[in-house]
Amino acid sequence: MNHCEVELIDCVVEGSLSCGIEVGPSRNDVVIRRCLVLGSSKEGMVVDSSGGRFLIEDCVAEGNGWSGIRVGRMSAGAITSCVMKGNGTGITVEHTCDVVAEQCVMEGNAKGIHAQGGAKLKVVGSKVSGCLSDAVSLVSDVDVSLEGCTISGNRGYGIVSNSGARIVVSDCEIGNNGEYGISLLNTTRGGLYRNTICGNGKGGSAIYGSAQIDVVSNEFKANAGHGLFVSEQSYGKAEKNICEGNSRNGIHVSSQSTGWRIRENTCIKNKEDGICAAGEAVCPTVERNVCRENGLNGIALRMGSRATVNENLCMDNRHYGLSVDVLAFMAGQGNTWEGNLKGQVRVEQGEIGRVRDFLPVRDYSELERIAKGLRRRDSVTPEGRSRLSIFYSQLGNGWGSPGHEGFEWFCSLIDEWMAKYPDSVTACTLKLYSIYRAAWAARGTGYWAETPVDQRERYLAELERGWEVVEKGMGLAEQDGELYVHALAIAIEMGQPAEVVEDVFAKGARIAPGYFKIYSTRSRYLAERWGGRPGELEAFMDRAYELTKEFEGAAIYARIATYQLAVYGPSEFETHKIGYEKLKNGFRDVMERYPDSKRFTNACCAIAVMHGDKDLARKMFDKMGKEWLREVWKDESRYQEARKWAYGLKAT
To answer: What pLDDT is recorded for position 103?
Structure first.
């Protein structure tokens, strides 16, 4: 660096009540070399508003309260061969700065690297370990690349990006972190290339929201969850990755993901499926993958997912080479299935798995036929779920979020359907579903007291619009239980009088007494956060039992309890102090009907643990093995502690 006007070399600064070394605002070039900064109350070193370039080299920042090194506003330069230990954050970059960090060591900081506010950061050959929370945290519109770094042994995430970031991670080792090795959320863009992601506490990599990520030539091994987990409206490609020995699926595509292409991956010896698509996920391409020796299936399509499966090799898996649930849909050719223990291919797909084919081509008459048949048969899956409910979930999801062009197109098709079939309760119900989603998109997910006034107003306006559809639907000749699920939610949330809410519930329970979502939806609003009073939930469960006991015995207690666990979690459900004998009888009855239900088995186990019933808990643990469900337990540590308690094992 030539023409340096600021040089600090071989300095020692200790115990500053503010910043140890602070440079800026300045237009000068800056060199800080071989300096030691210890125990400052704020930052160890700060470079801010530097018009020239800076170099921080061979320095140590230790035990500083905020950051070891912070680079701010429009500063550009390099941090080379520095050590940051025991600081609030090792390196912080922000406000449109441009920084290269090379061969640095960040050890034992509360957080390793934090980038925000339009910063550009390149990290090369550095090590981040022992952080008390996340190793690398990215917020808002930053541009970050990490090359050849080691990120290990941190309590939180290895790398986490919340929104708006562009990130490229290549040739890094990311392992033994407490959460996911990499978690990319919302509008994050970029790619993961040639990384080794192993032994992380929640899973290898998780990609959520509308993130757009390419995942190519990585190794996901021995993670305590899925190797690669993608969900919601994220999209990208997963190609030439190795997913081995993960405690769940090698690759898991879930929720409303619609754009993932899964090609030429090797998924071996994972405890569950090699590749799994679930929820309303749509995979345009699953091709030329190798899935071997997995604990369940080579490739599994579950619960409404859809995929084109071509030229895959699935062999020596403990269940099937390919398993397609009754609610999923699969097309494809040229696959090879060999040596799978339960069989080569298991396909149970039916007409529900194909309903999304009929809407884009405007075949409303076929959709009317299917819905009428489902209402007439009132059938359920082996898990005890209503097939009519799944029909609506299949048809209503996977088109994007409100405001997305796919969602707007879906809404236009429903309007066209209603115009063509004005007396259709099916179209009316889907219209309600779309309005309710739009209402919550307008409101946001924060606390009501913190929600801006304009968002509240848009939310309430959407609910008012929904109520007009409710009144139309309740007046139609043909009725539908799902209509009353949304009608209840809208009536309660828009503040309709208690007698109106009661009328909606009573009519729904009368016209569709076996449509259990009506009861679970009503129970949702008896939680304390919705104004529920002590004893009110149990009183409602007693009432629901009287309405359903003739055809399901006490099972409604178990159904509502399972729903409450999924929505609010074990800790909050426990505060209602529901009588244990009622719950135990409910699970006895529901599991007589659905003995293979993982959902009810997990929920029964959680309730038994909650009430100190070791005998029943052990029976359920024996039955479910290690197939615990996150929707019931919320996190693996709760499941593991409960299991140790039930079997009298010591905590490790």
So the answer is: 98
Sequence-ordered list of residues with C-beta below 8 angstroms from that of 376, at least 6 positions apart, any chain: none
Give the pLDDT mean for 546-557: 92
- Write out the two tokens for 626: 């290690």
Q: What is the pLDDT of residues 595-604, one digit of tens each?
A: 888 889 999 9
Count of positions (residues) in the chain: 652
Burial 153-171 (b: 16+ CB within 10 A, else e): bbebbbbbbbbbbbbbbbe
Contact between residue 88 and residue 113 where contact means Cβ atoms under 8 Å apart: no
Place of tokens 């929201």: 209
Of 305, 301, 242, nearest in space to 276 by CA:
301
Q: What are the structural domain ranges in the chain?
A: 1-129, 363-515, 545-652
The answer to whether residues 213 and 237 touch, using CB atoms and an 8 Å cutoff, is no
SS3 label, residue 148: coil
Sign of the torsion angle spanned by Cα atoms 592, 593, 597, 603: negative
Q: What is the pLDDT of residues 470-484, one digit of tens each?
A: 999 999 999 999 999
pTM, to two decimals: 0.65
Q: What DSSP letter does each residue of 289-350 carry, written as one string?
A: -EEES-SS-SEEE-TT-EEEEES-EEES-SSEEEEE-TT-EEE----EEES-SSEEEEE---
How would you classify the pairing of strands 282-287 and 98-102? Answer: unpaired
Query: Regarding beta strands 212-216 and 235-239, do their DSSP bridges make them parallel or antiparallel, or are they unpaired?
Result: parallel
Tokens representing residue 503 in the block = 């009328």
Q: How far apart are CA 576 and CA 533, in angstroms?
A: 9
CATH fold of the domain at 363-515: 1.25.40
Nearest to 522 by CA among 550, 499, 491: 491
Site of tokens 């409100």: 402
CA distance 452 to 619: 49
Q: Which residue has the tokens 């559809």?
A: 469
- Measured CA distances, 110 to 62, 87, 154, 282, 302 (Å): 12, 6, 9, 39, 40
Q: Are 326 and 339 in contact (CB under 8 A)?
A: no
Q: How many CB atoms lie within 10 A of CB 497?
A: 9
Q: What is the pLDDT of residue 652?
A: 40
Q: In angstroms, rounded to a whole number, what is the distance separating the alpha carbons of residues 229 and 583?
A: 34
Burial class (CB in 10 A: 0-12, 13-18, 19+), 455: middle
Mean pLDDT of the chain: 90
Structure tokens at 365: 């008459």
3-state DSSP assignment of residue 366: helix
CA angle 248, 249, 252 (to 5 degrees): 125
Neighbours of 26 (CB within 10 A): 17
Give pLDDT tens digits for 181-225: 999 987 789 999 999 999 999 999 999 877 889 999 999 999 999
Residues 328, 643: Cα–Cα separation, whole Å: 33
